[in-house]
Amino acid sequence: MIAFDFNYIKPATVAEANQTYTMVHDQGDHAMYFSGGTEIITRARVNELKVDTVIDIKEIAECTVMEVQDDKLVIGAAMSLNHITNSNLFPLLGETIKKIADHTSRNKITIGGNINSELIYKESVLPLLLVDAKVKLVKGTKEKIVPLSSVFDKKLKVQAGELLLQVIIDTEYTKLPYASLKKTRFSKVGYPVISAAAIVKDKKIRIAFSGVCEYPFRSQEVENILNDSKKSVSERIEKAINSLPTNVLDDLQGSNEYRVFVLRNMLYDIMEEMGMGE
Amino acid sequence: MNIKNKPTKKVIHLHVNGETHEAVVRASDTLLCTLREQLGLTGAKRACEDGDCGACTVLVNGEPTHSCLSLAVEVVNKPITTIEGLLNSPVQSAFVDHWAIQCGFCTPGFIVNCHALITNHPNASEELVEEWLQSNICRCTGYQEIREAVNNLLQKSQ
Predict the structure, then answer these.
(1) B110 at the A interface (CB within 8 A)?
(2) Which residue among A101, A108, A188 sits closest to B65, beta carbon to beta carbon?
(3) Which of B67, B84, B101 lies at the terminal end of a domain, its last residue?
(4) What is the ipTM, given to two decimal places?
(5) Domain count of the fold of chain B
(6) Position A278 confidence tier, pLDDT thresholds 50, 70, 90
């Protein structure tokens, strides 16, 4: 049970959602956009967050779209992870998010919520970084479409009141060869020790990780090393591991040494699967 | 839209097991809390309240949902099925026939989830069954019997 109460608003339009946010904010209260709501509910229950008004975006048509429009795959922020997987419109994304939480939870968790998560993993971001996905953000009457990589630095950096409306992907990327691997500590359901997604475009591997560092990332430096065909695969992998953007995580899910061990094996598997050997 | 006032309790109508129920809720009340404390439907169990165990599973629009991770106000006007709505269902009978019950605490959540699996995927593959069953935890570890109950129903449906 959540110890405090809040207002619950379910707007039908983006404009109404933005107006509500502004109104609450101007009163000096705290508003949050609410999609699947799983993280808001669990964190509110243990008093990790306090909110005065939640704005449920599930009735907003733009947030529940999932279709190809002029060679672009458009995914509304309120689309559930299972819906995206079952659509099979972007197999790499579908397979990666299929490994988040459990099947029942994925009926409720949405892609917008996962990208915006306070948790460090945010695995849905991995395929999106690989395919140079764009996001549509709205605040007031201002709407902008920007590369996800320009607003995602360790976490999604949006202004107060800015609503993540949609994710937009060029469909040419959705057909590329891919790999998606995740290792957990015990069972198949759980936070990753290491999660990785990769594609090959123009004979070059692109790869993004979660669980390695304190945030999900795609590193140009790591990709350049892995694509250096003048070196052996093992040399490339060792150099890549030594070129991570920050320290490897060391926590209850896995020690630093164990994560490096898993990462190394995973890189061998991915390089082989993607045909990136000598 | 009135957000100037402090939040107050509201009357909502929930469509549960084919009947419309009136409930007085706070917006922050979960569906689990409302089902158990307002409607007296105590089949959905309160356990982890974190979406990890599946003991609180109900169907919303025919999809398994953790009722601990849904607000009651979110599911107004949506059909909800709880374990009480699956009385004498084939899944319930299969669980009895295969002794897929030990302490029984997780059983309602498993039955609701398995009912949705078999209804939505009567030809479910082994892989799909495994994926769906990973949503529920049985601390008595009676997974084998539960799996046999589901497999038996799937064989019958095929």
Answers:
(1) no
(2) A108
(3) B84
(4) 0.96
(5) 2
(6) low
